[in-house]
Amino acid sequence: KSMIFKEVKVNNKQFKEIWIKEIESKQPHLSYEYLTFGNIDISERDYFLISTIDDKVVSIVYLSTAAHKIFKIIKLKVLSLGSQITYGLPFWYDELIIDYSTFLSYLLEYVNKNIKHQLILLKDFKEIEDAEKTLVNKDYNFLNFNTFSRSYRFIEPTFENYLGNLNSKKRTFLKNEIIKTIELNNLRIENVKTIDNDKLDHFYKLYKNVSLKAKEIRIEALPKDFFIRINNHFENLNYVVVFEADKIIGFGILLGQGKDLRCFCLGMDYTSSKKNNLWYVIVLESIRYGIEKKYSKIEFGNSNYSMKRKFGAIEEKIIFSIKFKNTTLNNLL
Predict the structure, then answer these.
(1) What φ, ψ does residue 222 adopt, rounded to 5°?
(2) Which of 27, 115, 137, 210 is a plausible cystine mate for 88, CB 3.0–4.6 Å?
(3) Contact predicate 82/88, CB 8 Å
(4) CA separation for the pair 118, 120 (Å, rounded)
(5) If we measure between CA atoms, which residue out of 263, 288, 193, 198 comes closest to residue 234?
(6) CA-CA-CA-CA torsion sign (274, 186, 159, 191)
(7) Stated pTM of the model
(8) pLDDT of residue 143
């Protein structure tokens, strides 16, 4: 029987109920609260789709379009699963009725007819857990490629437990290098729910410092108004702010979603980062905050695994699948 896709609003009752039950419950970082923030990055447009067979909902999916430079040269309109700053798999299909191949087949048929794009990006597939899906993607002429490592850690009930469970090399590094730096340099750490408007320009400058310096994963910088709107939307939002004397030299944004704490983005003053081990201080204080607030897991985000492993992070390799709409171009991949 034919599977029919249709576009709906994000607040569609069926879409919302299924998203919360089937996606948010298994992937807290893909919370419905996160979806409804709207235009959180440089996406041109978001698409929320439902598919049915005989009026029974059998799948939902979130897509977005945005202009991206491919190979740093060609600018193309890219249609992707999720958006630039979401991760995980933003779709669900009823496995009792259809399989992933059927879901993908009908989805591709719909988007090729109804959504303008030049390239499709399917993300984020875990290398081992989602291996069967990436093989199906390949069957549909997608190119699979390793992109980056994502890392996380299940965190202990106390900070002392956390340090005690690290191996001696990691524990010594954190105690003798990072914790001692905080003490010797008289760094002050504050956890705040929002940033004042008069400090927005300074925070944004620190964020842009990091965004422009990124090497492993380079994405478009978030707009300044993002930092205004985020304050008013997320209930479990926290800024880890680092002061040197009375000057703010760095911050990290943490987003609590269920029992997971996600490191969202950070900003740093590079003129004082080296002497203060600033990046390490922000990450360590993020872990400390997660422990204090009784989270079970902290998501460190993408890239820099070689640095994050010093905190006992677990690596998770991520696969992207891409396909040009133009068959000739796709055959060149």
Answers:
(1) -65, 145
(2) 27
(3) yes
(4) 7
(5) 193
(6) negative
(7) 0.81
(8) 95
3-state SS, the chain, equals: CCCEEEEECCCCHHHHHHHHHHHHCCCHHHCHHHHCCCCCCCCCEEEEEEEEECCEEEEEEEEEEEEEEECCCEEEEEEEECCCCCCCCCEEECCCCCCHHHHHHHHHHHHHHHCCCCEEEEEEEECCCCHHHHHHHHHCCCEEEEEEEEEEEECCCCHHHHHHHCCHHHHHHHHHHHHHHHHHCCEEEEEECCCCHHHHHHHHHHHHHHHHHCCCCCCCCCCHHHHHHHHHCCCCEEEEEEEECCEEEEEEEEEEECCEEEEEEEEECCCCCCCCCHHHHHHHHHHHHHHHCCCCEEEEEECCHHHHHHHCCEEEEEEEEEEECCHHHHHCC
Which pLDDT does position 333 carry in this prediction? 66
